[in-house]
Amino acid sequence: MPENSHICTWLIHLSLTLITVTATSSSHCSMAVTPSTSLLSFLQRLQKTAFEAFGGTDFDPKTYVDVPLKFPLSVTQDAFQKLPRNANGTVAAEDLKRFLEAYFGAAGDDLVHLTPHDFVREPEGFLPKVKHPRVRAWALQVHWLWKNLTRKVSDAVQAHPDLHTLLPLPGSVVIPGSRFREVYYWDSYWVIRGLIASKMHDTATAIVTNLISLIEQYGFVLNGARAYYTNRSQPPLLSAMIYEIYRTTGDVELVKRSLPALLKEYEFWNSDIHKVTILDAQGCTHTLNRYNAMWDKPRPESSIKDQEFASNFSSVSEKQQFYRDLASAAESGWDFSTRWMRNPPNFTTLATTSVIPVDLNAFVLGMELNIAFFAKVVGDNGTAERFLENADLRKKAMDSVFWNANMKQWLDYWLENTCEEVHVWKNGRQNKNVFASNFVPLWMRPFYSDTSLVASVVESLKTSDLVRAAGVATSLTDSGQQWDFPNGWAPLQHMLVEGLLKSGSQEARSLAEEIAIRWTGFGWSNGVVLAFLEEFGWPEDRNIEC
């Protein structure tokens, strides 16, 4: 029992009284909703019309909210209204195709290819541990992808932002690729790790500068740099990006410039919409965080699909809550997974806002530690001390709410009623299904520095059945969702491997290297590949197996 348990037990009666008084309060359930824009509303109508006209299994709704307008919205809307329609209100495919060609650019046209000035074909000191010639040649091909994925926002977006859903950004960007034609928040961390391995420090700093500009304008880093992402964020890893750049370059000016934005982002993640209070088994009160998008409508980039799923609900309030949980799953980066479903694999039981996620709180713990470190760098000792205290409180909260001593994992916690202001912890509310996220806290220093804990977690990971022939699986449930078995995503591989490495345990390092060697385009995948090769290298005598 913790040292202050006698105090916590004394407080339990007061806390339970508080629950009785406040549980029915509606203020805690009053959820913010980011207003839409006229442009987005029109593009969603266009998306619906295109689906009716073109349909097909390869229809991508995102395309129709990414297209830039050639003319003012009022002119485009007027032409749209004048399109000939069939008796059922649909537009013929040929008529719509001509309209699209006349009034819109292609999705992605408002980004311009850019060769980064700090890109060289083979950087000095690039991956010195990679000795195998074929692996080194392949690593250089991955390195060269940065040249293909780097863009800048076109001058047209800066001049006429009202014609674009793409948001203006001050610096160059690295996009994930494929249909993702914009910057994404948490992807950027692993892109930056790869850029650092490629000695492209200026490009890495430009990405951070862009994300800071979003905080300055919106109060948080958006899910991505599109107008339809202003209702949610993504896993908060900006402070980790800045830490990695500073650790490599010693850029104190970057730290000074970043700290006010990081404090603002921290306020966002600890505001009422994300903050949850838990009363634990010892009577101690803890504050943790959840994902909670500021949205209760179909996501503009996926309206057709969202509405189809929501048709299973009869009431407006049920639909609105489902839409919020959909957008909140997107905020988590795990879109989608049985992790967020009350009755998996039934997609309509998605309830993301009812989950207190292990990994989100690990990320916020990392943010607290990084802010403390940065404050120390710039001489602000008061802020440094305050955030070290915050980190210590969060670590204790995670130990109390998430840690399961039997499984030797940290488990997500399900809320019974999101409207309660104080939630009483119950053992049965931990999600005992195995996900890779159950091991993410090991990425953070307060956990990987605990030798005894690391030994327990390594044993648990080895016996979890997550470690497979090609790396760590996301879950053990084959649901057909992206963030479930058998998929193994780059960020999860990297966080687990790096946490194991930092522990200093030889057994943990052996497991880390085994995972890295097993796991084998996409922006963040490129970054993780380069980071792994930088850490472990590839001896000339090691076989290459597929």
From TrEMBL:
**What's the protein name?**
Trehalase
- Similarity section: Belongs to the glycosyl hydrolase 37 family.
The catalytic activity, as recorded, is: alpha,alpha-trehalose + H2O = alpha-D-glucose + beta-D-glucose
Does this entry carry the keyword tRNA processing? Answer: no
- What keyword terms does UniProt attach to this protein? Glycosidase, Hydrolase, Signal
InterPro entries hit by this protein: 6-hairpin_glycosidase_sf, 6hp_glycosidase-like_sf, Glyco_hydro_37, Glyco_hydro_37_CS
For this protein, the Enzyme Commission number is: 3.2.1.28
Where does the signal sequence lie? 1-23
List the GO molecular function terms.
alpha,alpha-trehalase activity
Query: What PROSITE patterns has UniProt attached to this entry?
Result: TREHALASE_2
In terms of superkingdom, the source organism counts as Eukaryota
Q: What phylogenetic lineage does the species belong to?
A: Eukaryota, Viridiplantae, Streptophyta, Embryophyta, Tracheophyta
Listed under GO biological process in this entry are: trehalose catabolic process
Quote the SUPFAM superfamilies the UniProt record gives: Six-hairpin glycosidases
